[in-house]
Amino acid sequence: MARVSDWNPDTxxxxxxxxxxxxxxxxxxxxxxxxxxVVDLGCGNGAAGPTLAKRFAGRRLLGVxxxxxxxxxxxxxxxxDHLAEADAxxxxxxxxxxxxxxxxxxxxxxxxxxxxxxxxxxxxxxxTLAVQMPRQYGAPSHRFLRDFAAEMFPDRFDVKGWTAPxxxxxxxxxxxxxxxxxxxxxxxxxxxxxxxxxxxxxxRFTEATAMRPYLERLNEEEAATFVxxxxxxxVSAYPVEADGAVLFPFRRVFFVLTV
Length: 259
Description:
This protein is an alpha/beta fold. The protein has one domain (9-258): Rossmann fold, CATH 3.40.50. 35% of the residues lie in helices and 20% in strands. It has a 7-stranded mixed beta sheet, with helices on both faces. Strand 2 (61-65), helix 4 and strand 3 (82-85) form a beta-alpha-beta unit. The radius of gyration is 19 Å and the shape is globular.
């Protein structure tokens, strides 16, 4: 029984400031560009749109996402010249862009070995592919989801042979360095999460993203049991500070490739 049919822009925006910080850190490493459009690939609710529009004023800014709800939210910022509903893994630009910028989207897509070279080949000469992805899969916030789902609902979740969808930074450097000038780095953000009414603060953060693939395969009763166990486990992994907040380390990997 599907519980989640589309992304919820309001839930995703709940920690908008924390989600925007890595987007800005990625953009800060993008240098001068040749002529051409700027593409926000997996633009979501358009959080990075205002900054992209300001930084690249005078260029066409295109937003691509497969979520109608997110595209509606992105349209409200008034930053994009065009918004397209498309699967980022299959998307092909009409004309070669100067920048393909993707913040916290490509980890949802498989086969990075094929995907990133294909995107790089779509750029104009001298263009840039800039990508940021969470790499949190070994942390309790994400490991609990995987382990509990497999233990509680083995008929729907089989983690045998599971591999993380995001590789380590060295692998991306090896993959992309033959294609141009590459910079790869990784950052652990220590995020302070405010107290959350009726939930562990980390669950409030992950329920908009990492929890979605699990919840959409559970019915209401199953989901409630799953969430309750997850909340209880998070208390030990991410204890509450004296002021009621929680400190939540979150790892992200970045690369900027100029072809």
